[in-house]
Amino acid sequence: MNFDFTEEQELLRKTARDFVDREIMPYIGEWDAKGYFNKHLIKRLAEVGFMGVCIPERYGGSGMDYNSLAIVCEELERGDTAFRTAVSVHTGLNSMTLLQWGSNLQKQKYLTPQAKGEKIGAFGLTEPGAGSDVAALQTTAKLDGDHYVLNGQKTWISLCDTADHFLIFAYTDKSKKHNGISAFIVERTYEGFSSKATKGKLGIRAGNTGEIFFDEMKVPKENLLGKEGDGFKIAMAALDNGRFTVAAGACGQIMACLEASVEYCHERKTFGKEIGKHQLVQQMIAKMEAGLQMSRLLVYRAGEMKNKGARNTRETSLAKWQACDFANKAADDAVQIHGAYGYSNEYPVERYLRNSKAPVIYEGTREIHTIMQAEYVLGYRKDKPLTHSLPPWKK
Ligand SMILES: Cc1cc2nc3c(=O)[nH]c(=O)nc-3n(C[C@H](O)[C@H](O)[C@H](O)COP(=O)(O)OP(=O)(O)OC[C@H]3O[C@@H](n4cnc5c(N)ncnc54)[C@H](O)[C@@H]3O)c2cc1C
């Protein structure tokens, strides 16, 4: 397996890093403190092609491969988790799912403006009573002539107030359990749609998360994605891509922890020497570096598998689980290295610690991924062949 980056990818990393240093780093402390989501930045991300990285050019995307998407996510999360989360839901969970499952008409109408960043996509699976247990969802969709009528509520939806289009999962036939869930493309402008941001979040305060509601909302029949009953499969396929972007972002979070910690190790002196010279501090730095390198190997291996069109649910889950755990630990250690100063927002590491928690919860909690990995090893879980080919990223 070749892990060398191409010249194009090296340039992409530099472009992403410069973007983050210029457009995010100088302002993020203030945005986070104020709980301000800068939606104009999404437009700027679109201008540099970061909202459609591995969507083919014929649909308005940048036509790059999966590991290029990983590079963008790594670099964005080095700036802040909020903007990587935006790319995860817009590209990983929504656009790539439209590419994989959408009809030609749906791709033209929804995917193309999303890949160009003219419209923003989001993903609505979680409900107040249904997170890990997807089949517990309560939202219903009833066919009535040429449209479905949706009733229900989704919670913890990233970009709830910002997105133009949502991928929504609802029961068309509850008696069939998982096989009775269907997926719909929903526009914010539909009558009966409303949203409300959640206040008081631990982290990702510079992001936009909240609830969305459907009250007798009419959705045209042609906005059904795939067939009736495909919803669960579609959601799981979407998560294969979303989790990949979350795992890549976690590498960026570790990079940010390392950068801040190394700088502080040289700056702060105790007992007559730089704290970086104390072996127990070195141990924390060494573990961050090990976590970064191991996570990257897992992420780029999953990316290579995706590039080849191979089923990668197992490998992506492992990458997501491990990278997010490493990032959470790295952020905890980064605060520890900064001592009391790490406990204040004078330094960015307290934001890293708060931000590093959500990725351990969303797109499959740590426990769900642990169970998945154990079940694969024990032979209780076996992936079926793909029913729809992976999104072709090639031009
Ligand atoms: C910032 C943020 C953004 C989000 N964005 C989105 C979004 O854009 N779209 C969306 O649809 N969702 C989103 N989510 C929701 C997220 O995906 C869910 O929170 C997640 O799936 C977990 O569901 P839950 O919170 O209901 O926890 P639960 O499923 O209720 O789990 C509670 C606890 O029980 C454990 N648990 C549950 N089942 C088992 C089991 N079988 N064995 C062992 N332990 C178990 C869990 O691991 C967890 O520790 C977001 C969440 C956050 C925090």
Shape: globular
Q: Kindly identify the CATH topology of the largest domain.
A: Butyryl-CoA Dehydrogenase, subunit A, domain 3
What about the largest sheet? 4 strands, mixed
Mean pLDDT comes to 96
Number of strands: 10
Uncertain stretches of 5 or more adjacent residues: none
- DSSP summary: helix tally: 12
Tell me the series of helices and strands, N- to C-terminal. Answer: HHHHHHEEEEEEEEHEEHHHHH
Cα-based radius of gyration, to the nearest Å: 21 Å
User: How many domain units?
Assistant: 3
Which percent bin holds the helix content? 40-55%
What would CATH call the architecture of the largest domain? Answer: Up-down Bundle
Bound molecules: flavin-adenine dinucleotide
Strand order of the largest sheet: 1-4-5-8
Give a brief rundown of this model.
This protein is an alpha+beta fold and 395 residues long.
Give an overview in words:
- With 395 residues, the protein is an alpha+beta fold.
- It folds into 3 domains: 7-120, Acyl-CoA dehydrogenase/oxidase, N-terminal domain (Butyryl-Coa Dehydrogenase, subunit A, domain 1, Orthogonal Bundle); 122-231, Butyryl-CoA Dehydrogenase, subunit A, domain 2, CATH 2.40.110; 240-394, Butyryl-CoA Dehydrogenase, subunit A, domain 3 (Up-down Bundle), CATH 1.20.140.10.
- 49% of the residues lie in helices and 15% in strands.
- The protein has 12 helices and 10 strands.
- The strands form 3 sheets. It has a 4-stranded mixed beta sheet with strand order 1-4-5-8.
- Helix 8 (279-307) runs antiparallel to helix 9 (313-337).
- The mean pLDDT is 96.
- Flavin-adenine dinucleotide is lined by residues 89, 123-126, 131-133, 156-158, 204, 209, 358, 361-363, 365, 367-368, 371.
